[in-house]
Amino acid sequence: MKLRVELDTSGAQQAVDELDDKIRNSDAFKVLKDGWTFEKNGVLIINNGEVFVTDAKIDDAVLSKSYSVKLNVAGKGKPHEAGMTLGVEGENSKVEFLADRYKVHEAAQSASNNEKTTFNVGLSFGGFHGAISHDKANPADGNNATKTSLNDEMCEAIISAVRESDLFAALQAKIDAQTASVVGLQQAMHEAVNDALRNALKPGGILWNTRSSGL
């Protein structure tokens, strides 16, 4: 005796497939697969545990982006440290360059010899400010001339720094020593002349004999 049984599992398979699709399309599965992501108007972004804040306001203070770059530039085999910071806050912007050596190069010429184009770039030295100006029509320096000007406060700071340097102190000490040597030589010559005159006026001296002989 043979018993033949046929089962239709298409309905069960369809139900399993639908359940699988629901699981894969669910938010819980996305968190397990890709991590949790949250975004609020492009300002606050949370991606897989990392929090990114592009703009924030704390009471009356404003927190904004800032970038910093530190370079180690080699010139003629000698390294020079240089840095740059950039901050943007509202409509105000600030760019600060720090370097022990710098040069200003013009990328292109756009003005003729008869035109005069100027621009000012702020400089920072010990907390004081100066400016770099560019004049395209300066025959004495050619078609292009770049000048650096310092305000009085910055000039005084540089002069003070030079005066307080070890090199200036060594030069001043050498000048003082030379001055003292000259003064000492003059004093010695003065004393030698006085001694010679005193000896000449003594009995037997040249001036004594001349006076005694009536000359």
Q: How much helix is in the residues?
A: 25-40%
Measured by DSSP, the beta-strand proportion falls in 25-35%
Question: Helix count, per DSSP?
Answer: 5
Structural class: alpha+beta
Q: Count the beta strands.
A: 11
Count of individual domains = 4
**Strand numbers in spatial order across the main sheet:** 1-2-3
Q: Distance between termini?
A: 179 Å
> What order do the SSEs take from the amino end to the carboxyl end, as H and E?
HHEEEEEEEEEEEHHH
Q: What would you call the shape? A: rod-shaped
Low-confidence segments, given as residue ranges, are: 105-139
What is the rounded Rg?
44 Å
What's the main sheet like? 3 strands, antiparallel
Average pLDDT over all residues: 64
Domain Tip attachment protein J central straight fiber: 66-114
Organism: Salmonella enterica subsp. enterica serovar Orion
Pfam family, one: Phage_Tail_Tip
Protein name: DUF1983 domain-containing protein
